[in-house]
Amino acid sequence: MTLCIKRASKSLATIAPLSLTCKVRFLFPSSFSLLHSLPSPSSPPEPDSSSSSSSSSDETHYKQLIFNTIDEKPWAFCNNKWVSNKFHAIIVDPHLFIKVLNLMRERPRIALRFFRWVEMQPGVKRSELVFSVMLDILVENNLLRSAYWVMERVITFHMHGIVDVLICGYLKFEVSVKLLDLLLLVCSKKLMVDHCLWIFDKMVRTGLLPDVKNCNRILTMLRDKSLVAKASQVYRMMKEFGIKPTIVTYNTMLDSFCKEGEVQQAIELLSEMRCFPNDVTYNVLINGLTKNCKLEQAEGLIREMLKLGIKVSAYTYNPLICGYFKKGLLVEALNLGEQMVSNGVVHTVATYNTFMYGLCRWGRLDDARQQFNDMLKRNMIPDIVSYNTLIYWYCRIGNISEAFLLFNELRCRRLVPTVVTYNTLIDGLCRVGDLDLARYLKDTMITQGIFPDVYTYTILVNGSYKLGNLSAARDLFDEMLHNGLEPDGFTYATQVVGELKHGDPARAFSMEEQMVAKELPPDLIIYNVFVLWHSKLRDFKEACNLLHKMISIGLIPDHVTYTTIIHAYLENGHLRKAREMFHEMLSKGLSPSVVTYTILVHGHAAKGFLSLAFMYFSEMQEKGVQPNVITYNAMINGLCKVRRIGQAYKFFAEMEAKGILPNKYSYTILINENCDVGNWEESLRLYQEMLDREILPDSCTHNALLKQLNNDCNLNAVRQLETLILECKESCGAET
C-alpha cells in the first residue's frame, strides 16, 4: 500500500513529532489515502492538471536521479560523508520525500539506503509519515532487521505520533500490526515501561492485538520492576481481548506474585492455567513458597512434580534447602540433599554453596568444609562464592590462618578474588586486632586492580576505632573521601560510635550536620546512638529532646530508643520516670521486646519493688514475649535480696521446665543467698551441680562461697571447696 498525500499542507511534515490521532481523518478528509503509487490498469485516469503533472514529474525525476547516481557511483548514499546538493529539496520537504519513497518500492534496499542518507543530513525535516512509509516498504518486503533499525530511529527522535498513524488505518491491517509489534519489541528492549503500556492499551482497544510474545515481554518488565498491579492489569486485558496466554505468560505472572509475597494468588493462578505446567512453573512456585516460609507446601509441590513425571533439578531443590537452613531445620535440609541423589538429581556448585553457608550459619563449620571437600572429590570446581563463604566463617571464628590458606588456594585455581573476598579478610584481621596487615591487604588489592569500596574503608575505620587508633580512623575516612567514595549511613554511624567511645564527642555530633549537607540525614540507628550516649551521661533532658526531635523530622523512634532511655532511668533510680517512658512507648503503638521487659523486671526487683517486677514478668508473657535466662535471673535475684529463697527456687525450677538452661549467674545468685543464711551444704551442692553441667563458675561464684565459709571457720567445708575449685581450674586448663 502507498501512503499518498494529494493536497495536504506541508506543515504536516515538520521537525517536531506529530501528535496524530484518528481525528486527523476529519481534519484532512482528502489528504490521506492508502493507494498504490501507480494507478492500476483498470482504474480510470484521474483528471489532469498542470500542478499535479509538475508534482509527478518532480518525484519521477528524483527517483531516476537516485538510481542513475548509484549506477554511476556505487558508493553513493553509503554514509554521511558522501555529499550532494541535488537532493536538498527532499531533505527539507517530507511531502516530496514520501512521494519519492513510494516510487522506489520495487527496489526496497535502495529506498532504505537513500532514507538512511537523508536521515543523516543536516537540516533534515523528520515526519512520522515518512517513517511510516519506509517501514511499510520494508515490512512488505520482509526486511524486518532493517525495519528494526528504522523503528529505533523513531524512538530516538521521540516520534510517538507514529502510533496513531499506524493505528488509524492508513496502512494495511497486517502491516500495522507487524509494525506496532515491532515498536513494542524495541520499546521493551529499551525497558520503556510506560511507553509499552501505552502502545499495548491503544492496540487492544482498537482491535490490533499484539503478539503474545510482546505481551510476555511487557509482563517480564513489570515483574522485574515489581509492578505487580500493572502486570495483573495487562494479564486481565490479554484475557479480555482474546490474547491466549502461553506457559511463559503464566510462569511470569506466577513469579510476579511470588516475588511480592502474594503466594495465594499464585496458587489460584496455577489452578486456572489452561496449559500443562512445566518444571519452570513448579520451580517458580517452590521458590516463592520457600521465601514466604511455606516450606511444607513447597516440599509437597516437589512430591507432586515427581508424581506427574515432571523433571526435578537442582533449581527445584536449592531454594527449599536454603529455606530449611534459614529456619534452623538442618536435618530436613540434609535429608533433601539425600533425596536429590535418590531421585537422580546432580548437586550443582550452587547446591554445595547452599549447604556450606547453611551449615556455617549454625556453627557446623567442619561439616561445611566436608561439603567443600566432597565437591572437589566429584571433580567439581568451586566458584568464588564457595571460597568467600568459608573464608567469611573462618574469619568470624578468628581462624585467620585457615582463611588465608583458602585465599591462596583460590588464586592457585585461577579464580579472581572479588572486593567481597578482600573485605572479608580485612574484617577478619581487624577483629583479631591486626590493623597493620589489614591496611597492607587493602593496598595489595589495589595493586591487583581491585579497588576498595565504601565497605572496605568502613571496616578499616571501625577496626581502627576499636583499637583506639583515632588518627588512623580519621585518616582512612579522609582517604575514602579523597578517592571519590561517598560514605553511607553505616559509615557515618561507625564514625559516630567510634568518636563517642574513643575520641571527640563534639566531632561525633558534628557528623549530623555533615550528613544533612550531603542529603543523607541521620537515620534511626544514629539517633539511637546519640540517645544512648546522653543516657549514659545521665543527661536525660537531652536524651528526651532527641526523642522529640526524631518525631519532628519524621523518624519514628523504635523500641530500642525507648528501651535505652528506660534503662538509663532505672540505672539511676528514677523508677517512676522509667514507667512513664514505658507507658509513652506503649501509647505510640510500639511493642516492648524481651530486653525492655527484662530491664523493667530487673530495675524494680533490685530495688525491692517485687509487686511491680511480678507485674511486668506476667505482662510480658501475656503479650507473647517469652522471658529468657536473664529475666529469670532478675526475678531470682530480687527474691533472694528479700530472703524469699523458696520462691526463688520455684522460678529456678520453672525456668528449667520451660527448657531455659540456667547459667553461671543463676547458680551464683542462689549460692550467694545460701551462704548468707549459713546453708553451706546447699551451696556446695549447687556448686557441684554447676560443674556436673559443665557450667564454669567465675570469681564471683568463688567469692560468694568462700566469704561465709571462712567466717564460720568450717575447715572441712573449706578444704572440700578448695578441692572442687582446684579440680575446676585443672579442667579449664586442660580444655585450653
TrEMBL record:
PPR repeats lie at residues 211-245, 246-276, 278-312, 313-347, 348-382, 383-417, 418-452, 453-487, 523-557, 558-592, 593-627, 628-662, 663-697. This is Pentacotripeptide-repeat region of PRORP domain-containing protein. Keywords: Repeat. It comes from Gossypium mustelinum (Cotton). Belongs to the PPR family. P subfamily. NCBIfam families: PPR (TIGR00756). Residues 48-57 have a biased composition (Low complexity). The keyword Repeat applies. Transmembrane segments: none annotated. Residues 39-58 are annotated as: Disordered. Signal peptide: none annotated.
